Amino acid sequence: MSLATEQASPAATRPAKPKTKRGPEHRPGLNRWLPYALLAPAVLLELFIHIIPMIVGIWMSFVKLTKFFIANWSSAPGAGLGNYKVALDFDNAVGQGLLKSFGVTVAFSLITVAFSWVLGMAAAVALQPEFRGRGLVRTLFLVPYALPAYAGILTWNFMLQRDTGAVNHVLEQLHLSDGNTFWLIGGNALVSLITVAGWKLWTFAFLTLMAGMQSIPRDLYEAASVDGAGNIRQWRNITLPSLRPVNLVLVLVLFLWTFSDFNTPYVLFGTAQPPAGDLITFHIYNASFLTWNFGTGAAMSVLLLIFLMIVTGAYLLVTGRRSRRA
Amino acid sequence: MRLRSLVAAVAATALGISLAACGGGDSDGASGGGSGGDQTLTYWASNQGTSLDNDKEVLTPVLEKFTKDTGIKVNLEVIGWNDLQTRIQTAITSGQAPDVVNIGNTWAASLQATDAFLPFDGDAMNAIGGKDKFVPTALATGGKEGTDPTSVPLYGLAYGLYYNKAMFAAAGLQPPKTWEEMVAAAKKLTVPAKNQWGMALAAGSYTENVHFAFINAAQNKADWFNGEGKPTFTGDGNVQGVLRYLDLMQKDKVANPSNAQYDNGTKSVNDFATKKVAMVINQNNADSSIVANGMKAGEYGVVPFPAPAGGEPVASHVAGINLSIFKNTKNKDAALKFVNYMTSAQTQTTLGKPFASLPVLKDAKPVFTTDEAEAATFQDVYNTKSKPLPLVPAEDQFESTVGKAMNAMFAKIATGGTVTADDVKAALKTAEDQVAASS
């Protein structure tokens, strides 16, 4: 209501505006409220979509929310740090499972981010010079990004089947294997997971890096070229340093996305996820929904959140310091 | 003024969106209706037929008849098996639940523990026709022993060993009566050069795997939980039972290693129906898939899944679908009428054929097949050779932990590894610890 009263005054002072030509500062009420009013919808949505669920999640991690209480979950008894103790007790099956899954996820994230970045960078560099059909190739590269994740991953699932999948068929035709390799169970599951996640992700890296490269002045390259610098030298001494701010954000975003990826393992493996592809988000899903222990699942989620916050903070601190020094 | 209305509009929209987000599901979870003549029940049915649409086609006329008889409308939603458990959990948590729901009967004790379902006490049981109308073993799956059940049987199912008659005749074999005979026959019918295998296993499906962990252990007279509901997974009988089943792929080599990727029973049944394998162990609702895939009735026979010589003659768990009423329903009487109708002799006969189910009512005859020998075999297994899965609250955890451990062991075997009795014991110990830690 106060919003409405505050706004009455600027309406009244409006006739003065053409004389002064000094804009909004002459309308103190509006000036004060407009930014908040424009932010309000976003803040409200943020509150309902992220903040409140997060608070509920943190609360859940401190109560014994098992099947015995989910029907009336506000009455679940407190668990203190019990859920955290179970999740972090590495002598016990639950803790061991979480630790293993954490290890798998770290390996998965690092390799996937590296793989996506290298591929994206290579493609962005290759598509810098103008040539006939460049637009078409760029469009084609964006297909994985445009495709609904579910459809793309499901197609991979078909292709990676042992007996009927295209991957084994092609490898057999090329005499690279006997065509009997398992891709979705056993140790290869991680390779498959990285391939599929990388396939989904590298085009984002490509798009971001390509956009970043557009802003590098051409004359830098021309000058370097006159001085006799080759392509690799130009890339190392001009492209890479110029893309530094882009890369800082890109690598962080890719890491956060891969570390909390749920779609890829869920659609690729279904409910029968192999131990080698047991990513932490899927592990938490199982802990919550298959064993009906939402308290422990929530504790694991909070631990994941803390870990990602620490990694992000440390990353920004280290890279920020280096930027300032440079 | 323009600005004020703009701000108001934006604020109202934002509020509207967030309110809609909070209240979402109100409409589809409606247990409303409530008053007077136009009562409406919401019913979540599990997928029983060849597809979700097929289920709708089969159920719609049955539900219309109920509406005609009672004036109560039924709002039907058919839910696939992969989603059903999560949907039920969400319904329990949010309170936005249907009135009546199908559940897998093995979940009965776990769901009962949530206290979200209506107990069929004396009055409720009388309202649906009394407990004497049901086959006692089927009714026993309705909840924990010694309590009022929170679910009643709807469709009965049991495992049987399907065999290809022509393949058996060509190899001069008789249908097996013991485990040893089954393995010997499977070995004889395994011709990897022709890509023909003795058996197909849904070795990547944790739900199928855990059923065989249970049945094979039961044949060894072993239990998975003690009297207090505590897990006893690592007993010798359990370890040996699990190993015996794994050995079909590992030691006996009568199943294609690719089966380790079969994450549901349909794939192994399809291999049988298309004559790639000589035998498959499946529940009697496999009949519709087998026929749909081109095998004719009469080309296959069914015998009970055999126990090893000297073992307990357990050939199946008491499988099937139960019916539950959510406790917070506003239409309790209508829901009880509906359960009574669905478990009436007439409805059971109507649905028994399309859903290939065994009758859960005393003295009823199976109608899912015209093959009398097959019908008699399944009925015999269901009534006399089956044992209910552990009726304890942690049953669902037993299914997920032991089933997934078996998936991983099959994967190890398929990719060239070896699984010993010690490995099985270690895997079951991990599963046991997981259950203990989360109960």
UniProtKB/TrEMBL annotation, chain A:
The chain crosses the membrane at residues 36-60, 106-127, 139-160, 180-209, 242-260, 298-318. Residues 1-26 are annotated as: Disordered. It comes from the Bacteria. It is found in: Cell membrane. It is a multi-pass membrane protein. Residues 1-10 have a biased composition (Polar residues). One of its GO terms (biological process) is transmembrane transport. Residues 102-315 form the ABC transmembrane type-1 domain. One of its GO terms (cellular component) is plasma membrane. Keywords: Cell membrane, Membrane, Transmembrane, Transmembrane helix, Transport. Belongs to the binding-protein-dependent transport system permease family. This is Sugar ABC transporter permease.
UniProtKB/TrEMBL annotation, chain B:
InterPro entries: Bact_solute-bd_prot1, SBP. Transmembrane segments: none annotated. PROSITE patterns: PROKAR_LIPOPROTEIN. The keyword Signal applies. Residues 1-20 form the signal peptide. Pfam families: SBP_bac_1. Keywords: Signal. This is Sugar ABC transporter substrate-binding protein. It comes from Kribbella sp. HUAS MG21.
